[in-house]
Sequence to fold (737 residues):
Amino acid sequence: MEGVDPVRAVALGGIGLLIAAYGSVFYHFIDVTGEPLAFLVLGAATLGAATLLARSLRLRWAAVVAVGLLVIGLGLYIVSLPRQPPLVPLITDAVALMTGRSLLQVTNVDLWVLGVAPGPLFLTWYLAVRRRYVGGVAAGGATLGFLVLTGDASNVTTLVGVVGGIVAVAVGDMDRRGDSLRAAEPLAVLLAALIVLSAVAPVVPAGPSRTADTWSSFQTGGPGGSVEANLVEADSQLGIAGNLSLSPEVRFRVESDAESYWKVGSYDRYTGDGWIRTGSSYSYSGRIQGPPGQSRAVGQTVTAIDEISVLPAAWKPVDIDGSVSDRARVTDLDGLELDGSLARGERYSVTSRVPVASARDLRSAGTDYPSAVAERFTRLPSSTPDRVAERTARITARADSPYATARVVERWLENNKNYSLDVERPRGNTADEFLFERNAGYCTYFATTMVTMLRTQDIPARMAVGYTPGERVAEDEWVVRGYDAHAWVEVYFPDVGWVRFDPTPAGPREAAEQGELADARANNRTDIDTNDTGSAEWTPTPTATPAPLTPRAEQPVQDAPGRVTVPDRITRPGGGPTGNVTAANVTITSPPTNAPSGGDADEGDDGAAGPFGGRPPTRAEATLATIVLVGAVVALRRTGVTGRLYRAVWLRYQPTKDPETDAERAFDRLEYVLAERHRPRRPEETPRQYLASIGADERAAQVAAVRERAKYAGRVTREEADEAVDLVDDIVGWRGA
Fold:
């Protein structure tokens, strides 16, 4: 094919921007769930094949190839699905995706991307190389539009694709007409204006994606709100926020056989900056399977004090009764969801089967995990820095079992990191940043980091959200407030199931909650107490306290020499944020942290200067910023602003060179200013005639004389040249005629 001229290169670049927009979303999926190198190789091979086949393959056959790639890819994806018949989940997934469900909720999203991406990528680039730019934009735009519907394409990504499509269509039309790039200058100005306008009032609809890559991330920061809203109302996607507050309002009352954390849901897929619950949910049909090992029944009755849209329950719920049973749904992770909400006073009953296992049982549980559990709950984004695994391995070097590893990590975080709600939203991988660069965070940070650390050691773990027990108001009754919303960790043990761990320091968290409650009571809030609260908390009798459901007070056990048994209580010498964590039979030395001492890791971050809030811009943001800059320069040049600015500087500033050049430049400046103030010199006029005709003063005549000697005699002294420059400087500042 013929060489690519500049106009065609720009048109192809527009298609490239469009491909980069939806390709970046696909790449993010692969980065979160697998090895992105396979996607990069497949993408490069697809682009290469499209370039080569564009020389000879007819359009109809190119369409056949694209459809064939899509069919083959979807076929491979269907084969990977564990459910049968395969077309049922494929259809239900497609409907859910088209109505806002993120692709990251698809269990095998890596296989879905590898199967689906080559078809539209091939057709988009094939049409672009064949100069069918409108068709290429249609193919690529349809792919990007699908990702917008799923909520996975952020405003910035979508805007990059829109800009690329506009460039490809507009400049592609110029390519067919044979126009030069100068004709595209109005387009550059229009695109710059569109981008600037969208930064102020977004014109591209944003999906429910909770990632940091949004157009509003030009102004960085967390989404705000309360911990409860961030955790409990997160639905299937949970973002890592910045500063959050506590809500002391009473939410519900629990009558239960035992104290517990009241779980709302859990998340299995860590994206680096948030959490996703993969899989779908199904209607509750009367019974949920219990845990694999020994368990005991715990009955609960929950009464809504305020309107709530969740179904809190002790893990693991197996039966639900009451008016909500026909509105309850069960997730793939065996959590409960509710269609609609519970009205004030509405109640339901839940029976849970709580795992019963001692610490000794958990230490001996081994690592014979079900393959589905190991595959799903040990995955990490491929972009997770290696230093996370290295740090975890050093911290847990003496642990002899997954249980010991989990306890060491739990206590290390509890003793080495501080609790705070006043934090800035992470700029990168949350776990890595919290582990190495921050001193403080709240429950989401602690739980996310612990899950990540355990997964680097191939221990299945997930993040759970819900409520801590709340205020105990009777032997078997608790009142739960908004500030009891919490995130914790669940670790899987063979023949036992999921066991709760909580790395968040309890004391500081409870102190913050009680402070919030005291302030609310001082302000005479009416929604923070019931008839049973507000007085001294209920005190149990020696016989009323039920046996612990998870091992929390086991005494140290002396194992064989060289082995480590991790007790439940590990004390921190001096109460400082770093140092040696000691127990009766174990000492764990914490490696040095990279965070500044004294809690300064986040100091000054809030309100950071700059358009990106002090953080590096994303690639999409940098691309849009470049387009804005080019458009602004073109606009200034077309309006003559750049020319006037250049002339203003040129007229008033003359750098020194050799005397002859300086004399010639001084006369050029003189002639320019005289033309502005009188008239330009005519072609037939000599400099002397021109100066005489406009009545120029002696200074102008002296400059002209120096210029004549430099031009015709070929020599002029340094002093004469400097004097000519000074005279012109004086004339430029002169306002007379």
